[in-house]
């Protein structure tokens, strides 16, 4: 997340005449109904944090007009934005966030592709999936995918993106409640000698953890570390701890009423959550701003302690 001018306190509006269009087909992501879904977003009555799902959705659907070199070609998002009937232009005014989302989408795609190249029959999970659709890019023809989020979001998702492929599934989950790994039916690291042949899992949790309390994030990381089979990966986005409590100053998150509760004072904190965890990769969005971005981040580093906005890949095998 980048520093912004004071927020404009605008909310995404429902368009007066939502477009009626058949969704484009992409993996199992072809949206279900041909019927128009006016005011669908309003009818969902999403609370503050769940309502933030519109921000990355808008960026993936329309953000490439500002950052063509980061275009993710998300045909599902493009279709969904039209079907939701929401005016997402206010989200697109927040260009630093649009850039963050497109950059992280590319990072997740890259991480997912290299994981599934090595494990073409393994499973992937999007924790706090919102209306994202990574399987359109990561379907190997033999792997599985699970999209999971809070019940109110999954109700909306089921209506818009019902499961069409037998290798994909939906689940409701609250990752602040311990035991989510088992409740989601994910493959578990077995005791010594029993774990041979257990497929690793690729997990993406993007745009989610910053809304949780620090102790809840630690518990999520620990549960991944304790349960995930060897070779599993957890890809997350992170903000500096200096952003905590400052969501009101954020141009697109501010108007939703959501707050940032978790940030890192150092990237090393991530792997410190559990001895089995290793920080395999860290990235900063400053790379998108060329040398001025890198220089500025270096100057601010003693205060920030971590990227303003970055990505981390955690693994459980020390590889
Ligand atoms: C900014 S949206 C990101 C959605 C999606 N990951 C994306 O990038 O498009 C934040 C998402 O986190 C989900 N979320 C927040 N707290 C959660 C929790 N405790 N358990 C599961 N999902 C949660 C919200 O419901 C929402 O869909």
TrEMBL record:
* Sequence ranges of Low complexity compositional bias: 14-32
List UniProt keywords, sorted A-Z: Methyltransferase, Transferase
User: Which superkingdom, per the lineage?
Assistant: Bacteria
In its UniProt record, a GO molecular function of this protein is: methyltransferase activity
Region labeled Disordered — which residues? Answer: 1-32
**Pfam families named among the record's database cross-references:** LCM (PF04072)
Q: Does the keyword Transferase apply?
A: yes
Matching InterPro entries: Ppm1/Ppm2/Tcmp, SAM-dependent_MTases_sf
Its BP terms in the Gene Ontology are: methylation
Indicate what this protein is called per its UniProt record.
Answer: Class I SAM-dependent methyltransferase
Q: Which species is this record about?
A: Acidovorax facilis
């Amino acid at each position: 997340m980048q520093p912004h001018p004071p927020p404009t306190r605008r909310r995404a509006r429902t368009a007066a005449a939502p477009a009626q269009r058949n969704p484009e087909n992409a993996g199992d992501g072809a949206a279900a109904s041909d019927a128009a879904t006016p005011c669908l977003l309003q009818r969902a009555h999403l609370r503050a944090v769940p309502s933030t799902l519109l921000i990355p959705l808008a960026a993936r659907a329309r953000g490439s007009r500002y950052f063509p070199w980061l275009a993710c070609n998300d045909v599902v998002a493009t279709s969904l934005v039209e079907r939701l009937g929401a005016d997402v232009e206010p989200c697109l005014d927040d260009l630093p966030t649009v850039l963050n989302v497109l950059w992280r989408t590319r990072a997740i795609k890259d991480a997912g592709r290299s994981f599934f190249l090595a494990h073409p029959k393994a499973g992937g999970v999007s924790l706090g999936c919102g209306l994202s659709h990574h399987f359109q890019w990561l379907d190997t023809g033999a792997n599985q995918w699970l999209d999971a989020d809070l019940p109110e979001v999954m109700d909306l998702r089921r209506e818009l993106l019902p499961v069409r492929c037998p290798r994909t599934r939906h689940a409701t989950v609250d990752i602040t409640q311990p035991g989510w790994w088992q409740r989601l039916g994910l493959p578990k690291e077995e005791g010594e000698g029993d774990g041979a042949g257990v497929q690793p899992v690729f997990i993406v949790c993007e745009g989610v953890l910053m809304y949780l309390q620090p102790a809840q994030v630690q518990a999520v990381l620990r549960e991944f570390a304790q349960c995930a089979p060897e070779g599993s990966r957890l890809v997350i986005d992170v903000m500096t701890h200096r952003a905590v409590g400052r969501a009101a100053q954020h141009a697109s998150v501010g108007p939703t009423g959501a707050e940032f509760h978790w940030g890192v004072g150092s990237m090393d904190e991530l792997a410190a959550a559990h001895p089995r965890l290793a920080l395999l990769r860290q990235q900063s969005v400053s790379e998108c701003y060329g040398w001025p971005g890198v220089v500025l981040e270096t100057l601010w580093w003693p205060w920030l302690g971590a990227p303003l906005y970055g990505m981390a890949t955690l693994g459980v095998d020390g590889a």
